[in-house]
């Protein structure tokens, strides 16, 4: 549990990456941050052609979700089917990444000493506070064909973190 009583952790020491050097990502404090609830919602619902810019996938035997950038160009020789289940080898995925695709592994979540949902659900922390649950936070959740960018959860669950950098 973190940021007791905080209404929003964006830009605070509880926002992953803000006060920490990321050695393989610029080695500077404040260069990286966690997405807000609204930014997750933009990626899967609000942007132009949002439904065509994500898909469940298996990348090198790891299940998860692919998110494509707003301006997307498919690498030659590869296939991407929106809202389907795409399968890529490690070599194919390296090519997809060069064109801006990101992969969110279905890492599940931690509760107390257990890890649950590995391989079929992804729970990614946001920096937005949720008042619907005592001490809650919003997270981006995907499970099966469902994507919920504004899912509310307790802050003491162990969630995955996807850091971003403003360009």
Which structural traits does this protein have?
globular; 34% strand; mainly beta; 11 strands; three-stranded antiparallel sheet; 2 helices; 167 residues
3D structure, described in words:
- This protein is mainly β.
- It has 2 helices and 11 strands, in the order βαβββαβββββββ.
- The protein has helices spanning 37-46, 90-98; strands at 33-34, 54-59, 62-67, 85-88, 102-105, 109-111, 114-116, 121-130, 136-143, 146-154, 163-164.
- The longest helix is centred in the first third of the chain and has 10 residues, at 37-46.
- 26% of the residues are buried.
What is shown here, in short?
With 167 residues, the chain is mainly beta. The chain is 11% helix and 34% strand.
Low-confidence stretches: none
Main sheet characteristics = 4 strands, mixed
Beginning-to-end CA distance, first to last residue: 30 Å
Mean pLDDT: 83
Shape: globular
Give me the strand/helix succession: EHEEEHEEEEEEE
- Return Rg in Å: 16 Å
Question: How much strand?
Answer: 25-35%
Tell me the structural class: mainly beta
Fraction of residues in helices? 10-25%
What oligomeric state best describes the polypeptide chains here? Answer: single chain
State the helix count. Answer: 2
Number of strands: 11
| Order of strands in the sheet with most strands | 4-2-3-5
How are the SSEs ordered, and which strands pair?
Elements: E1 33-34, H1 37-46, E2 54-59, E3 62-67, E4 85-88, H2 90-98, E5 102-105, E6 109-111, E7 114-116, E8 121-130, E9 136-143, E10 146-154, E11 163-164
Parallel strand pairs: 2-4
Antiparallel strand pairs: 1-11, 2-3, 3-5, 6-7, 8-9, 9-10
